[in-house]
Amino acid sequence: MRHRVRGRKLGRTASHRAALLNSLATSLLKHKRIQTTLPKAKEARSYVETLITKAKKNDLHSRRQIMSVINDKEVVKELFNEIINKIGDRPGGYTRIVKLGNRMGDDAEMAILELVDFNDVINAKAEEHKEKRETKAKAKKENQEKESAEEANVVQETSAPEAN
Predict the structure, then answer these.
(1) Would you give the DSSP letter of residue 101?
(2) Which of 17, 98, 113, 153 could be bridged to 12 by S-S, CB 3.0 to 4.6 A?
(3) Cα–Cα nearest to 99, from 116, 108, 112
């Protein structure tokens, strides 16, 4: 029986599991949103939330504790400067898990793990990509219309002498 046994092993050794959680935490804090399997997302959520809670103290000891886990200095700076300023008032629940369904290859449950207050950052990026796609589609449509108009002119020129 596994009464009160916390955590998931995720089919990995202890060192591999620690490295996995470190990299998931780094990616989440860097990109504000990651897509992974549901068990990994659930395990990484508690891991990241403890890091953010430690970072809220904003002293040298907490900074060194977090630096021992996250090896990217830029991500640590971003955590202490941007993320903590935005999440500082929240008493917990800094992340959200959104279930996506099952992956095609192995039918594993997929999920998005994201920081709660950073939807506007992601939505702004999505808007930029949407605008780029729309302008690209508009330009492609105009090129197709020009080509079809040129083809129509060529067809009219070649068919006109035959009619005479």
Answers:
(1) E
(2) 17
(3) 112
Nearest Cα to Cα of residue 108 among 40, 9, 20? 40
pLDDT at 160: 56
Which pLDDT value is given to residue 67?
Answer: 95
Tokens of 161: 């002498």
Q: In one letter, which amino acid is 102?
A: N
> Average pLDDT by consecutive 10-residue portion of the chain (164 residues)?
90 95 95 95 95 94 95 94 89 93 95 88 74 88 83 70 54
- Residue 78 CA to residue 102 CA, distance in Å, equals 32
Instruction: Report which secondary-structure segment, H or E, holds 60.
Output: helix 60-69
Output the six-digit token pair for 101.
Answer: 């369904």
Q: At what angle do helices 60-69 and 38-55 cross, to 10 degrees?
A: 160
Q: Mind listing the domains of the chain with CATH numbers?
A: 14-163 (3.90.1030.10)
Q: Tell me how crowded residue 41 is: count the other CB atoms within 10 A of its CB.
A: 25
The half-sphere exposure of 62 on its side-chain side, counting CA atoms within 13 A, is 14
**Residue holding tokens 């009219």?**
156
Give the C-alpha separation, 149 to 58, whole Å.
Answer: 65
